[in-house]
Please model this.
Amino acid sequence: MYAFNYHRPDTLEAAAAALAAAEDGQVLAGGQTLIPTLKQRLASPSDVVDLASITSLRAIRRDGDPVMIGATARHADVASSSVVQSAIPALAALADGIGDPQVRNCGTIGGSIANADPAADYPAAVVGLGASVRTNRRTIPGDDFFTGLFETALEDGEIVVAVNFPIPRRAAYAKFPNPASRYAIVGVMVAETADGVRVAVTGAGDSVFRVSAMEEALAASFTADAIRDISIPRDGLNEDIHASAEYRAHLVGVMARRAVAATAG
Model:
């Protein structure tokens, strides 16, 4: 690990100021990616700004219709929250399936989406539920937040403050996990929202994406049979030691049908 200046501010304003003053600053939320990266000397920031002492960023509450989840709320907090379980049980279940107990009790929703790992679970929830990401500068629609492999719409010095999730009429998430890491080889969030049906896929491509053909079919008939014959092109999908692009394309259909079926339960 290379030397760096460590900051642990207790307000969002102080965190933003520390980040702005740094030559090459990094935000530390849960540390599940940043800490191993630092240990392996794959990153050498001049400053690390730890958000752990900003208690307001850990809040989970229902603000009218949307459920607001603070950026440093841990996965375990989301999974066990009575607010989330009551309003969006699919989101609580998704959080409960992330990694292992250690990861769930350290990792945060803000850190996860800012990292934008292509196999992470939360991107499917953000896009599939039509959420918006609030930062210290603006609000970014979920559809515009993830821009590529480990890339987001966040600008230099911008800090995720919270994610606002509209409450769907029904929703479910189905994942085919890597048996070791529990990352999604393919994960699909299906939701019937006030603005229509949304189907978001994580793990299959460089970034989360929607499947418009499935959305249109489910809008006409919200049943697993309605999307049974819809195939996903394998071009551009991830291919690695865990699964071929062809297998991932197949899994998108399987997980989508499982998610639809789960909404009936």
Observations:
- Residues 170-263 form a domain with the Enolase-like; domain 1 fold (CATH 3.30.390.50).
